[in-house]
Write a structure and sequence with these properties.
alpha+beta, 3-stranded antiparallel β-sheet, two-stranded antiparallel ribbon, DUF7707
Length: about 190
Amino acid sequence: MRQSAVFVALSALGLVAAQSNFTVDPNTIEPTKRTEWCNAQFNTCGILCGGVTKANTCTPTDLKFVCTCSNGTAPGLEYYIQSMPTLLCQQAFSECIDDNIGNSQGQGKCTTDIKNRCGTLDPAKAEIGGGGGGGSSSTSAAPSGTPAATTGGEAAASTTARAGAMPTAIGNGIAAVAAGVLAAALL
């Protein structure tokens, strides 16, 4: 019975966290801005991995990136400002607003479907939980013009990204409920 409750709670968490996709064409973004975004992505990955990454690359030409902490995990970049998923989400929102000039209903949908799902957390305030420790790893080089490679266990994302994070208050509430159910099941 307890295992069923845990499964249901965690399944609900996964269902709510599922987001729609959107695509941003990197060629519509100025090269200088793409470089700035890659630098922000690189810095955010480093912060969220406690300063020690296994892979941390970003390619300004196509905005593809890899962010893997030294312990092999990938931080939830979509929840944080100054990460590529959030920057792409904000760009998609801006494009949606531009595509719906004079259409208040369309612009409202841009807000609910895209903007409200863009990351809002500050990576500088994140609690780093072991992402930077352990293993024999080193910090990766800064973003380069070479394509980001993906190997086993590394997270790669491109200009097709999930529509960011679920709204923080909802996400935190669902996570708290799931954690409570899990704790109750362990008793």
